[in-house]
Design a protein that fits this description.
Length: 413
Amino acid sequence: MRKLAIVLFVLIVAAGVAFVLLRPHLATKQYEKGLSLTDSAQYEQAIKKFSSAIWFNKKDANFYNARGIVHTLLQDNSAAIADFSKAIELNSEDSDFFLNRGKSYREIKTVDKALDDINKAIELNNSSSNAYYQRGLIMASQGKFDEAVDNYNKSIELDGSNLEAFYSRGESRGNLEDFMGAISDYDKMIENEESPVLAYKQRGIFKLKIQDYKGAEDDLEQVLELDKNDKEIFYQLGQAKYNLNKIDESVTLFNSAIKLDQNYELAYGARGGAYLKKNSFKQAINDFTKAISLNDSYKRAYYGRGIAKALAKDYKGSIDDFTKVIELDKDFVQAYYNRAVSKAILGNHLKALEDYDVIIKFDPRNAEAYYNRGISRMNVQNTEGACSDFSRAVELNYQPAEQMLKLYCGSRK
């Protein structure tokens, strides 16, 4: 009996020793299975395998890092941060661990910690294209677009195939109004057939910004062939058609945008503009009114409605709308101009003169404003001031003012 006990004890010890010796091997096997499951997008199963690997070997930082990556794929950034933090505790010299944790902090908008981690990743490995890219994203999220572009430049310098960096740099360049630079970034993406819908869409939008309306039309039509569920594509393509004077086509596109989103104020505003160009004043006013009901600070809609009302001879209504535009934006010069015209038509020349004064202060070379102010001055018996304005309008090559000089000013010319 005593011999049997000794034999059992020896077997148990041997098994324990064998298990201890096998633990690293078993851990590696579980880790490898986890990687395979991750590659096949079986994330829940992958987490179980990585957890098994950690049970066998709690000292391997790579196991925690791998599990953390899967947590990010499942959008569980809190669990991911815990795993990346453990990996860093075990090995604080691996830049990828800091990079991964920084990405997770960025996802949950803990920007300061994200930036600290990304900076540390770059300190440990200053040739990491992805680290500079991630820092660029953080800068852009803070509105620091110049710094974002600098980081994207470095990312692309280190890895010219990082097309995500081209896309993000294009966005930041757009925010800096470097539209040609943005277009060149989307050119690169299109050359590499990367995210064609996004690239053509963004390039088309920026071509609109530089008034390349035909180029914008071509790009956005390409996008529309691939995606007919994006209201913005219909809206932006409608804008391109409008500026190419394809008004009926633009209305059809704005209709499609509104069908996708009946609260899309920009589409109502744009369709109002198209109706205005067709001299369909009632429809224009209805669309502008709808846009304003959705956004009572939509100054372009107030302005468009003011124009439509003036053309429909509702001058008082137009004055109310232009006044609202000026309340929203005191530097909107055309609102002063059109309000002055409506006031003058209603015979309120003194009030019209106040607006013309503002316009000329904004733009001392606005010949038409001098001419119209001259007419209003004539109507309030200020002939000397009127002739001075007509003379200035002539100096600025506004031909109708010459006739007024001849008729009313004589030798004052």
